[in-house]
Amino acid sequence: MSECIFCRIISGDVKSNVLHSDDDVFAIEDINPQAPVHFLVIPKKHIPTTIDIGEEDHNIMGLCLSVANRIVSEKGIDTSGFRIVLNSGSDAGQSIHHLHFHVMGGRPMKWPPG
Ligand code: AMP
Ligand code: ZN
User: Fold this and answer.
1) Is 26:9 a contact under the CB 8 Å cutoff?
2) Which residues line ligand 1 (CB under 6 A)?
3) How many Å apart are CA 56 and CA 44, to the nearest integer?
4) For the segment 47-73, what is each residue's pLDDT rounded down to a tens digit?
5) Which end of the chain has fewer CB atoms at under 10 Å, N or C?
């Protein structure tokens, strides 16, 4: 069994609130939301960080952003604005080493994030 929590969520071993699933991309509600809308878009392929993205993964990255756009529209924050964050490595606070896009909105987002 994989030790990666996101691989286990994608395989269905661990329960989550699923927003989207197709051949390449998975999206779930974040379990500890930092904004009124906070969900995660996750490539099904186990890519640890952005540094590990290969040429063969370029299409998947675009598909992830398309899924993010679709969900922000469904949630009604497409016109008010939203933030997409991809933490990569320990200084960025990445705690789960399976690449994922945080999508947050529903309130004004501070910048810089700190
Ligand atoms: P990061 O720190 O960028 O790696 O983000 C990991 C995110 O995953 C955090 O926002 C967590 O709240 C979220 N998270 C951790 N475990 C789960 C889970 N089982 N279901 C949904 N989100 C989770
Ligand atoms: Zn994984």
Assistant:
1) yes
2) 5, 16, 28, 30-32, 40, 87, 93-96
3) 14
4) 999 999 999 999 999 999 999 999 999
5) C
